[in-house]
TrEMBL record:
Residues 18-75 form the 4Fe-4S Wbl-type domain. InterPro entries: 4FE4S_WBL (IPR034768), Whib (IPR003482). The Fe-S cluster can be nitrosylated by nitric oxide (NO). Pfam families: Whib. Keywords: 4Fe-4S, Cytoplasm, Disulfide bond, DNA-binding, Iron, Iron-sulfur, Metal-binding, Transcription, Transcription regulation. Its cofactor is [4Fe-4S] cluster. Belongs to the WhiB family. This is Transcriptional regulator WhiB. The gene is whiB. Acts as a transcriptional regulator. Probably redox-responsive. The apo- but not holo-form probably binds DNA. It is found in: Cytoplasm. It comes from Streptomyces qaidamensis. GO terms for cellular component: cytoplasm. GO terms for biological process: cell redox homeostasis; negative regulation of DNA-templated transcription. [4Fe-4S] cluster binds at C19, C42, C45, C51. The lineage of its organism: Bacteria, Bacillati, Actinomycetota, Actinomycetes, Kitasatosporales.
Length: 81
Protein backbone atom coordinates (compact mmCIF):
# COMPACT_ATOMS: atom_id res chain seq x y z
CA UNK A 1 0.00 0.00 0.00
CA UNK A 2 1.40 3.40 -1.00
CA UNK A 3 0.43 6.53 0.89
CA UNK A 4 1.12 9.89 -0.72
CA UNK A 5 2.58 12.58 1.48
CA UNK A 6 0.54 15.75 1.52
CA UNK A 7 2.81 18.75 1.12
CA UNK A 8 1.64 22.26 1.84
CA UNK A 9 2.52 24.65 -1.01
CA UNK A 10 4.50 26.89 1.36
CA UNK A 11 6.69 23.91 2.27
CA UNK A 12 7.42 22.64 -1.25
CA UNK A 13 10.92 24.15 -1.00
CA UNK A 14 11.77 21.37 1.47
CA UNK A 15 11.68 18.82 -1.36
CA UNK A 16 14.73 20.52 -2.90
CA UNK A 17 16.63 20.71 0.38
CA UNK A 18 19.87 18.76 0.63
CA UNK A 19 18.93 17.79 4.21
CA UNK A 20 15.88 15.94 2.86
CA UNK A 21 18.29 13.76 0.90
CA UNK A 22 20.78 13.36 3.75
CA UNK A 23 18.72 12.50 6.81
CA UNK A 24 17.90 14.32 10.02
CA UNK A 25 20.76 12.98 12.16
CA UNK A 26 23.19 15.70 11.09
CA UNK A 27 20.62 18.48 11.54
CA UNK A 28 19.22 17.42 14.91
CA UNK A 29 22.30 16.17 16.76
CA UNK A 30 22.43 15.11 20.39
CA UNK A 31 23.11 17.99 22.80
CA UNK A 32 26.79 18.89 22.79
CA UNK A 33 27.44 17.19 19.45
CA UNK A 34 29.04 18.98 16.53
CA UNK A 35 26.89 20.70 13.90
CA UNK A 36 29.84 21.14 11.56
CA UNK A 37 28.65 18.55 9.02
CA UNK A 38 25.12 20.00 8.98
CA UNK A 39 26.51 23.48 8.34
CA UNK A 40 28.71 22.15 5.54
CA UNK A 41 25.69 20.57 3.85
CA UNK A 42 23.63 23.75 4.36
CA UNK A 43 26.41 25.76 2.77
CA UNK A 44 25.92 23.84 -0.49
CA UNK A 45 22.10 23.89 -0.39
CA UNK A 46 20.34 25.98 -3.05
CA UNK A 47 17.42 26.81 -0.74
CA UNK A 48 19.34 27.74 2.38
CA UNK A 49 17.76 31.21 2.57
CA UNK A 50 14.21 29.83 2.37
CA UNK A 51 15.05 27.34 5.09
CA UNK A 52 16.43 30.00 7.42
CA UNK A 53 13.46 32.27 6.77
CA UNK A 54 11.09 29.42 7.59
CA UNK A 55 12.95 28.64 10.83
CA UNK A 56 12.90 32.26 11.95
CA UNK A 57 9.26 32.82 10.97
CA UNK A 58 8.18 29.66 12.78
CA UNK A 59 10.45 30.03 15.80
CA UNK A 60 12.15 26.66 15.26
CA UNK A 61 14.00 26.01 18.49
CA UNK A 62 15.87 22.82 17.66
CA UNK A 63 18.29 21.71 14.99
CA UNK A 64 20.26 23.39 12.25
CA UNK A 65 18.11 25.38 9.82
CA UNK A 66 19.50 27.47 6.98
CA UNK A 67 23.02 26.85 8.20
CA UNK A 68 22.47 28.27 11.69
CA UNK A 69 22.29 26.45 15.01
CA UNK A 70 19.68 27.12 17.68
CA UNK A 71 22.02 29.53 19.47
CA UNK A 72 22.91 31.37 16.26
CA UNK A 73 19.24 31.83 15.33
CA UNK A 74 18.48 33.11 18.83
CA UNK A 75 21.31 35.63 18.55
CA UNK A 76 20.07 36.69 15.09
CA UNK A 77 16.60 37.30 16.54
CA UNK A 78 18.08 39.41 19.36
CA UNK A 79 20.13 41.53 16.96
CA UNK A 80 17.18 41.96 14.58
CA UNK A 81 14.88 43.45 17.23
Amino acid sequence: MHIDTITSPELEWQQEALCAQTGADFFFPEPGSSVREAKRICGMCPIRAACLTYALDNDERFGVWGGLSEKERLELRRVSR
